[in-house]
Design brief:
This protein is of the alpha+beta class. 20% of the residues lie in helices and 41% in strands. The strands form five sheets. A seven-stranded antiparallel beta sheet has the order 16-17-20-24-23-22-21. The chain has a six-stranded antiparallel β-barrel with strand order 1-2-3-6-5-4. It has a six-stranded antiparallel β-barrel with strand order 8-9-10-13-12-11. β12 and β13 form a beta hairpin. The longest helix is centred in the middle third of the chain and has 15 residues.
Length: 415
């Protein structure tokens, strides 16, 4: 059955519409790509399908962390298997993970086989690339695409590939015509907008594996938490410091584009038939870190909302402001992963600005030192204009949530 699934891929690679170079690339390198499946122990049924590739002479396989995440999060319930090009099933052990860059290394006993070579130099934008993997468990396939450089607005390095990656290709290699791995298939936004983890992140993880696998212990939830904490200490270190860009929003001063990895957007409602006007300014990180199904981390969002009126009296405008302040826009989360929110509200004053501030936090059940945090602020003092500002962070320590929230408060005020 498994061999039958793989055989049509060879036929697909020879179909009209694919250049001779593409079929040649497939013929030369297809046997270095594997299928990865995660099995549920109770039913022995497939839970997840992904792809991987041989990365060194020891036969170690590289894939995405998100392909094998359930083996790390719930090891008693799930196990990983690797299916080679001949259809043979091999039990696999996870040797190392890089949860931040969505990578994992597996050992499935595939020694003595030819591995891929990782590309070490820069690839010019516009170069043709070839992605290999098992889309939707249909058999090994090859997709031709175009290298469009590294993303500029991202916290996590990603290569923009113009090509059609599909579910099941995650963890497979994207290679050049010489068969060097340029990146690892990781995600798609549809319409031939796809993304790769750069090969240098694979090289870094493989170097760690070579140094006695992971000297800090076998992959586990504790290691996932440690990697997330180390990463956030870097990207939160200078967030909202004195160099943060600020803009005028009505009579207020607020921050925008807190770091290069944020994207900012604005909308405005100015209808003469309405009793008030609403202007919104929102900045957020483009990516997050996958932990497990229904749980991600590493997102930061900043949202400002200016409300103003020429028609409402003071009590009615205050009611509008209060209703907007009380609306629930906190991140969603399954009860299996996070506790209930706990909130504290009080009035605070910074410089000459009085604010109503609420801080809400919830703890990660399986990663106890990490929290989601939401800080919501309403600036007080006028009967015809008001500012609501919200900071949302996922997967941060209590200390970082407190430190960053205090900096955030210091960036908001009257002009």
């Amino acid at each position: 059955m498994l061999v039958g699934l793989l055989l049509p891929a060879g036929i697909h690679a020879q179909q009209p519409g694919l250049s001779p170079a593409t079929s040649d690339v497939f013929r030369r390198f297809a046997d270095r790509v594997v299928k990865i499946q995660v099995m549920e122990a109770g039913s022995s049924a497939k839970s997840t399908i992904g792809s991987g590739f041989l990365a060194n002479g020891e036969g170690y396989v590289v894939t995405n962390y998100h392909v094998v995440s359930s083996v790390i999060v719930t090891p008693k319930r799930y196990r990983a298997e690797v299916i080679d090009a001949g259809g043979t099933v091999h039990a696999a052990k996870v040797l190392a993970i890089d949860v931040v860059h969505d990578l994992a290394v597996l050992d499935a006993g595939l020694r003595g086989r030819s591995p891929f070579v990782l590309a070490s130099g820069a690839v010019a934008q516009g170069n043709r690339l070839f992605s290999l993997g098992h889309p939707r468990d249909l058999g090994l396939s090859i997709v031709e695409g175009t290298h469009n450089g590294l993303l500029t607005h991202t916290l996590y390095p990603r290569i923009h590939l113009t090509g059609s990656l599909n579910p099941g290709m995650s963890g497979g290699p994207t290679i050049d015509e010489q068969g060097q791995v340029v990146g690892v298939n990781v995600s798609t936004a549809g319409n031939q907008v796809s993304f790769l983890v750069p090969a240098d992140r694979v090289a870094a993880l493989m170097a760690r594996v070579a140094a006695s696998h992971d000297p800090r212990g076998a992959p586990s939830l504790a290691q996932v938490g440690r990697q997330l904490r180390e990463h956030q200490d870097v990207y939160l270190r200078d967030l909202f410091d004195s160099s943060t860009k600020r803009i005028a929003l009505g009579p207020f001063q607020v921050m925008t584009e807190p770091a290069p990895f944020f994207r900012c957007w604005a909308t405005a409602t100015r209808d003469q038939e309405l009793a008030y006007e609403r202007t919104q300014h929102r900045c957020s990180t483009d990516n997050d870190v996958y932990i497990d199904e229904d749980q991600t981390s590493g997102e930061v969002t900043v949202s400002h909302q200016l409300l103003s009126t020429r028609l409402l009296n003071a009590p009615r405008f205050f009611a509008l402001l209060s209703a907007s302040y009380g609306s629930d826009d906190s991140p969603s989360g399954a009860e299996a992963y996070v506790t209930s929110w706990k909130c504290e509200t009080r009035n605070v004053r910074h410089d000459r600005t009085t604010m109503r501030a609420s801080i809400c936090m919830r703890r990660y059940r399986k990663l106890g030192e990490l929290y989601d945090a939401v800080l919501k602020i309403a600036v007080l003092g006028r009967s015809d204009v008001g500012l609501l500002s919200t900071l949302s962070m996922t997967g941060v320590t209590f200390e970082n949530a407190d430190r960053v929230s205090r900096r955030y408060l210091g960036q908001i005020g009257w002009r």
